[in-house]
Write a structure and sequence with these properties.
The complex is a heterodimer of chains A (401) and B (143). Chain A is α/β, with parallel strands linked by helices. Chain A has a single domain (8-121, 224-399), classed as Peroxisomal Thiolase, Chain A, domain 1, CATH 3.40.47. Chain A contains 14 helices and eleven strands. The two termini of chain A are 22 Å apart. Chain B has two domains: 17-65, no CATH class; 67-143, OB fold (Dihydrolipoamide Acetyltransferase, E2P), CATH 2.40.50. Chain B contains one helix and eight strands. In chain B, the strands form two sheets. In chain B, strands 6-5-4-7-8 form a five-stranded antiparallel beta sheet. Chain B has a three-stranded antiparallel beta sheet with strand order 2-1-3, covered by helices on one side. The chains are: A alpha/beta (401), B mainly beta (143). The interface between A and B is large, with 44 and 41 residues.
Chain lengths: 401, 143
């Protein structure tokens, strides 16, 4: 079952995240066009090579999003897909694009995630808060289970539910807050070797993390992502496109995905995340083992997401993730390089494009373009996406030739 | 001409029952807990649905349960989850597992956060909101 590994990431573009937008305000559609052009230029491909797109939700359309985009860019798409899987959406979009290429539907597919939500306003079209902004990922529509059984109890947004997961983890397996802090510290070291990272030049210590405010007990501020303005795009193509591209192709060898629930309250076992299935399928499809990957890029909205993903993806034994973190150097120069550009915690989370940071982190390393943060002889990467509250998760395996 | 944007006054959102979920809310109004049971599945389920999750069996029955349970997990939210909760103070966001099996999103009340332990026994607290014609179910430590 699965991919043959005949579709590759051939180019990418990632805007340096900004905590406050210092660039010109543009709409998501304009961002879609410019990010895509930059990724195509990076690959050395022409816009006319493209006959497929994958997109997240955008600000300028609630329906007919893919056709709005193909019209805007002038693409005759054979495959035009929208992915609504939150932070798992980027990784999910990558394998969908690879599948479209392997099915022969497309030669080259643009996977573009605008991540700048600070868009233009006008006095006749002013900024207005709506339920989506107030309640984040929870729907307040009449008849929505979230509107009826979650939002009234304050069970909304991300901080509370991730705090609940971390609390339960501590109850079942024990809790070492120093190990949790070390995840953020090692990633910050990686950001300090990555000039585009929002926290470049600002190293932190375990003491700094533990001294930062407790936001959702037991999670501290420095264990939680910083929302940023940015955006990212990736070009995926077939073997002919790979021959035309100027970059080392990053072949997509395996993927897995699982989407079992929306609200963690309804997880059958909150301590067994969907990553167990996603990672097993990805490794089995790629025909390699955990020991065969040279770096990992793990979706890191919160430190607890990283910890449980390391366990559930099979890198650390269940319940021993904190020991694993303490025993390994997770920096780009360490024995278990993880989130080598800083991760979202230290590179910055550009909204829905945050998940693409991990895709590009893996691709950048395999292409050998990570500069000071380059992992020596990096040929295989394991990348994850995570949406909602660890409720929709995707795994990918990349390989250079 | 432009007019200044006036943000609305926000208060805690309260549940609005649907035709399907009404028996659950009607029971809470009587300070009872009533949820659905699927005989073919042999399990209680929550929240209310038209068909049993997993099997989609069309045999769901409403049954009263005691409402007692254990604290599955919680977090102390020192910051409001949204602007609607700005005047609600510190919330203890909790998941309670009923003795009959299903889990329930709720809040812990009448407890010092320092005394909360995952796994502790908890008892229902029925909170009436007559102005919204709704009763919410919160929890406190047993005894």
């Amino acid at each position: 079952m699965g991919l043959r590994g005949e579709a590759a990431i051939l180019g990418y573009f990632e805007l340096p995240p900004q905590r406050k937008l210092a660039r010109e305000k543009t709409f998501n559609l304009e961002q879609w066009a410019r990010l895509s052009k930059a990724a195509l230029d990076d690959a050395g491909l022409d816009a006319t090579d493209v006959n497929g797109i994958v997109t997240p939700l955008i600000g300028e359309a609630d329906m007919f999003v893919p056709s709005t985009i193909t019209e805007y860019l002038g693409i005759d798409a054979n495959f035009a897909e929208i992915v609504d899987l939150g932070g798992a959406g980027s990784a999910a979009a990558i394998w969908r694009a690879a599948a479209a290429v392997e099915l022969g539907l497309c030669d080259a597919v643009l996977v573009t995630f605008p991540g700048t939500h600070d868009v233009p306003t006008h006095e006749r079209r002013p900024f207005e808060m709506n339920d989506k902004m107030y309640f984040g990922a929870s729907s307040n529509a009449y008849g929505s289970p979230q509107a009826e059984f979650e939002i009234p109890y304050g069970n909304l947004g991300q901080n509370g539910p991730y705090g609940q997961i971390a609390k339960r983890y501590g109850y079942e397996f024990g809790y070492d807050e120093h190990a949790m802090a070390k995840i953020a510290v090692d990633q910050r070291t990686n950001a300090c070797a990555t000039p585009d990272a929002v926290f470049h030049g600002q190293p932190i210590s375990i003491e700094d993390v533990l001294a930062s405010p407790l936001i959702a007990d037991p999670l501290h501020m420095l264990e939680i992502v910083m929302p940023c303005q940015g955006g990212a795009a990736v070009v995926i193509g077939n073997k002919n496109m790979a021959a035309k591209s100027k970059n080392r192709p990053v072949w997509i060898k395996g993927f897995g995905e699982r989407v079992p629930y929306k609200t963690p309250t309804y997880a059958k076992d909150l301590m067994s995340s969907p990553m167990i299935h996603a990672a097993d399928q990805a490794f089995s499809m790629a025909g390699i083992g955990r020991e065969d990957v040279d770096m990992v890029s793990i979706y890191d909205c919160y430190s607890i997401t990283v910890l449980m993903s390391l366990e559930d993806a099979g890198f650390a034994e269940k319940g021993k993730g904190m020991q694993f973190v303490n025993e390994h150097d997770l920096t780009y120069r360490g024995d278990f390089p993880m989130n080598t550009a800083g991760g979202q915690l230290s590179f910055g989370q550009a909204g829905i494009a945050g998940g693409m940071h991990h895709v590009i982190d893996g691709a950048r390393q395999i292409m050998g373009r990570a500069g000071e943060a380059q992992v020596t002889d990096c040929n295989r990467a394991f990348v994850t996406g995570n949406g909602g509250i660890m409720s929709e998760q995707t795994a990918l395996i990349f390989e250079g030739e | 001409m432009s007019t200044a944007y006036t943000p609305p006054v926000l208060t805690r959102p309260l549940p609005v029952p649907t035709p399907l979920t009404k028996p659950f809310w009607d029971a809470l109004a009587e300070h009872k807990v009533r949820i659905q049971y699927s005989p073919s599945l042999g399990e209680y389920i929550f929240y209310p649905r038209p068909l049993a999750p997993r099997t989609l069996a069309d045999d769901l029955q409403w049954r009263e349960i005691s409402g007692a349970g254990t604290l599955y997990t919680y977090t102390v939210a020192t910051r409001p989850p949204s602007a609607h909760f700005a005047n609600e103070g510190t919330l203890v966001l909790a998941i309670v597992q009923w003795d009959e099996g299903p889990k329930f999103s709720t809040e812990l009340v009448n407890v010092d956060p320092a005394d909360i332990r995952v796994g502790m026994r908890v008892a229902p607290v029925f909170c009436d909101y007559p102005e919204a014609d709704i009763t919410m179910l919160r929890y406190e430590p047993e005894n």
